[in-house]
Amino acid sequence: MAYRSIFDASALRTEFENAGINPQFIPLIWKKVLQNPNCKWEEILSLPAAAYSLLNSKFVPLSSTLHSVAHSTDAVTSKLLVKLKSGAFVEAVIMRYDSRKGQYDGKPRPGGPRSTLCVSSQVGCKMGCKFCATGSMGFKSNLSTGEIVEQLVHASRISNIRNIVFMGMGEPLNNYSALVEAIRMMTTFPFQLSPKKITVSTVGIVHAINKLHHDLPNLNLAVSLHAPVQDIRCQIMPAARAFPLEKLMDALHLYQKNSQQKIFIEYIMLDGVNDDELQAQQLGKLLETLEVVVNLIPFNPIGSTSQFRTSSEAKVKYFQKVLREKYNIRTTVRKEMGQDINGACGQLVVSEQDKLLATSTAPLTDIEDLRF
Ligand code: SF4
């Protein structure tokens, strides 16, 4: 039989309960695996005797393996290539920052820099956004809860992860139950991340947004809007046909009313498609009654075959100016393309080159070598 990840929480809890083992031992097991992912079950002392035979027959500490890590030349970003037990690959990206640098006599903050981990939720994605590398792969499979959490376990061996963004491969709200369970695990012992440090990015799966605040209060919601009107959305994001903009905006208003939290809006800037003053005005009007932060993302072409071009810097700046000055909307521009991927969901794809590099012994030195 196929062994399951110890981080497949509901399967583990069910097995423990069926075997009459107290589930209160589960967090201890997770803690030990976090400390040593290669541990043998017998090395975890003080479990009930029945737990060892159950664990040995049905569970492994990790179901995925970290195949390779590629570091950007400035050491800010590391891309993890993770091989699932199915043989498929997903990516997770660590972004290091030290936002309080300078507040302690110019020295780095105590405890060292903190990192954000960009996590994948699916192998591929069925939403098919035309500008997205992952969308070009098509949908292969959902990740299990364990496979999502294991990305954090792998990354925690490399860096001190304090923030999680679900902006890797896949549409997280299309893998809703695994997402919810994974985030619940990440916010409890032994991970204990604050829900306020976790961001879920979606293209706008309306029915799931309607449930999200109830199931996961206090996390951050980011919406990949990318256009202020339905016809442009449908042109660049085919899945938007199923989620009319009007219904999406209703869902966002309700989400904000219930959560009292600002919403992050991701907007990829595509030359001549969605970056004119008209669209800036439409976007401003659409968002002026919400409390949002808009993140304008200069498009990063997916190879030479991309049908889109990057908006000029001047156009991006003017777009930002309209949103800020006319509509008083906090608007940022993602500056470092490529390395700073904390912008929109699904800008990751596992290429054949990635897999080749993953199985080679050559050290990877630059994340840009692996991108798109
Ligand atoms: S942008 Fe996000 S939702 Fe769209 S295809 Fe890419 S991964 Fe999927």
UniProtKB/TrEMBL annotation:
GO terms for biological process: rRNA base methylation; tRNA methylation. It holds the Pfam family Radical_SAM. The keyword Oxidoreductase does not apply. One of its GO terms (cellular component) is cytoplasm. InterPro entries: Aldolase_TIM, Methyltransferase_A, rRNA_lsu_MTrfase_RlmN/Cfr, rSAM, rSAM_sf. Its cofactor is [4Fe-4S] cluster. Keywords: 4Fe-4S, Cytoplasm, Iron, Iron-sulfur, Metal-binding, Methyltransferase, S-adenosyl-L-methionine, Transferase. Residues 111-340 form the Radical SAM core domain. It comes from the Eukaryota. The lineage of its organism: Eukaryota, Viridiplantae, Streptophyta, Embryophyta, Tracheophyta. Its main location: cytoplasm. PANTHER family: 23S RRNA METHYLTRANSFERASE, RADICAL SAM SUPERFAMILY PROTEIN. It is found in: Cytoplasm. GO terms for molecular function: 4 iron, 4 sulfur cluster binding; metal ion binding; RNA methyltransferase activity. This is Uncharacterized protein LOC110792782.
